[in-house]
């Protein structure tokens, strides 16, 4: 039975000395994995052992030669063995532009290397990288199963050796027999789903006044399991919120834990959050126009024609219109965003003279009214508290700008929106006409007082 084999090619073989240490070293000396390190310079043909040259087209730095690399990769098959290793090659090339190294990727490689007909070579580039012709040339070779360019993250290293060590640490431990207790990987971060591992503790239970959570000392295995699950979910939301959208198979207690951490299910079942509210800036005009074009149509009564909607959007919700709003000192626009600054909705509030209705301030709007002119949320985020967060942000900003009341108009046929604003503290004080395209609509005019003592 063949042993999983990985070869590393580098100009700094001593950099790979850690392969003799810890779990990797034990797996290596125990015959569970065949790890070999090769000096790229051994395949040079000149007396200076040159592996690089100046880049065509000019520029800083040096580029590693593809011919030297091709010879070095091929030479790994005959490294001191009586007969060549004829297994197919998986060539792994560390590069900032490669596929991210994830637990799923590591498991994929481990499964592949456990098969008897494949081995891997890691090509550790240096300088400005390896000549770009090498990867496509390797992919054309009959003895190469595939070439994978991979990355540790969005940063630059001096060379690929650190990435090679990280890859080997991640992959070798997953090979058959390497871990004494296979259950060790069962509850690790990213093993089965996109969650971080819970915090772990050991003796002493009270270390210099820092105590272990009592639940871990209870002996109640069900409570311990639940606590660990909650900690994993909370850690994931706090430290890696971009992973939240990938969570699946949640039970009711999971949903409660996530909600407490600011992540809730939207009306269509998608996990939303943690939601952030930020002020829109000049570069958001096109984004706001896209949001408005989508959400305005959904808020209109069913009998509103698409022609009228398009005419209204073109006249009042275009990129140019939002650019004017963003340049107006009396207008504040706030955006609600999901993880990664992905927009979920927006609100626009007017203060000063522009906050008065066309025929004057509405009844009960106070001496210094502000107008909540627009507040819209994408369908996938509805039911997730995004609209409440937008209204809260608008209330805070309008109060800060000196307004004493906030008013708005909501389509009289949109009972759901009217009910939402009523729950948010708005009361109907009258009616108004609002034109969409060539059709007049009746709006409820609603007003809510702003918190006393907040205004400057």
UniProtKB/TrEMBL annotation:
Keywords: Cytoplasm, Methyltransferase, S-adenosyl-L-methionine, Transferase, tRNA processing. One of its GO terms (molecular function) is tRNA (guanine(37)-N1)-methyltransferase activity. It is an enzyme of class 2 (transferase). Its main location: cytoplasm. InterPro entries: Acyl_CoA_acyltransferase (IPR016181), Alpha/beta_knot_MTases (IPR029028), GNAT_dom (IPR000182), tRNA_m1G_MeTrfase_C_sf (IPR023148), tRNA_m1G_MeTrfase_TrmD (IPR002649), tRNA_m1G_MTases_N (IPR029026), tRNA_MeTrfase_TRMD/TRM10 (IPR016009). S-adenosyl-L-methionine binds at residues 125, 152-157. Residues 275-451 form the N-acetyltransferase domain. Signal peptide: none annotated. It is found in: Cytoplasm. It holds the Pfam family tRNA_m1G_MT. Its EC number is 2.1.1.228. GO terms for biological process: tRNA N1-guanine methylation. It catalyses: guanosine(37) in tRNA + S-adenosyl-L-methionine = N(1)-methylguanosine(37) in tRNA + S-adenosyl-L-homocysteine + H(+). GO terms for cellular component: cytosol. Homodimer. Specifically methylates guanosine-37 in various tRNAs. Belongs to the RNA methyltransferase TrmD family. HAMAP family: TrmD. This is tRNA (guanine-N(1)-)-methyltransferase. It comes from Litorihabitans aurantiacus. The gene is trmD.
């Amino acid at each position: 039975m063949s042993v999983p084999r990985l070869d590393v090619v580098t100009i700094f073989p001593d950099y790979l000395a850690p392969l003799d240490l810890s779990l990797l070293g034990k797996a290596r000396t125990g015959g569970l994995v065949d790890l070999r390190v090769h000096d790229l310079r051994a395949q040079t043909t000149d007396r200076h052992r040159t592996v690089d040259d100046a880049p065509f087209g000019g520029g800083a730095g040096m580029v590693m030669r593809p011919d030297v690399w091709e010879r070095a990769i091929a030479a790994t098959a005959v490294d001191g063995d009586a007969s060549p290793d004829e297994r197919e090659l998986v060539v792994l090339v560390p590069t900032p532009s490669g596929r991210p190294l994830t637990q799923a990727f590591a498991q994929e490689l481990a499964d592949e290397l456990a098969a008897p007909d494949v081995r891997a070579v890691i090509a550790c580039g240096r300088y400005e990288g390896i000549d770009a012709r090498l990867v496509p040339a390797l992919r054309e070779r009959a003895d190469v199963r595939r070439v994978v360019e991979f990355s540790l993250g969005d940063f630059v290293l001096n060379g690929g050796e650190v990435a090679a060590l990280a890859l080997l640490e991640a992959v070798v431990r997953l090979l058959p027999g390497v871990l004494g207790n296979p259950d060790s990987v069962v509850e690790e971060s990213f093993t089965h789903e996109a969650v971080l591992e819970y915090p772990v503790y050991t003796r002493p239970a009270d270390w210099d006044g820092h105590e272990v959570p009592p639940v871990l000392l209870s002996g109640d295995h069900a409570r311990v399991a639940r606590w660990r699950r909650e900690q994993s979910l909370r850690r994931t939301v706090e430290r890696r919120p971009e992973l939240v959208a990938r969570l699946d198979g949640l039970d009711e207690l999971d949903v409660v834990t996530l909600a407490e951490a600011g992540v809730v299910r939207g009306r269509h079942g998608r996990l939303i959050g943690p939601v952030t509210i930020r002020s829109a800036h000049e570069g958001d005009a096109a984004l706001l126009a896209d949001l408005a074009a989508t959400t305005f149509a959904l808020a209109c009564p069913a009998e509103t024609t698409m022609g009228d909607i398009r005419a209204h959007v073109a006249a009042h919700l275009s990129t140019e219109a939002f650019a004017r709003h963003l340049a107006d000192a009396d207008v504040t626009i706030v955006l609600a965003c999901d993880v990664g600054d992905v927009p979920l909705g927006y609100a626009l509030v007017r203060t000063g003279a522009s906050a008065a209705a066309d025929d004057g301030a509405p009844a009960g709007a106070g001496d210094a009214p502000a107008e909540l002119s627009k507040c819209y949320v994408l369908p996938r985020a509805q039911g997730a508290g995004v609209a409440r967060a937008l209204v809260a942000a608008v209330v805070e900003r309008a109060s800060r700008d000196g307004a004493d009341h906030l008013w708005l108009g909501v389509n009289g046929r949109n009972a759901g929106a009217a009910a939402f604003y009523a729950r948010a503290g708005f009361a109907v004080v009258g009616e108004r006409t609002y034109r969409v395209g060539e059709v007049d609509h009746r709006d409820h005019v609603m007003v809510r007082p702003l918190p006393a003592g907040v205004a400057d």
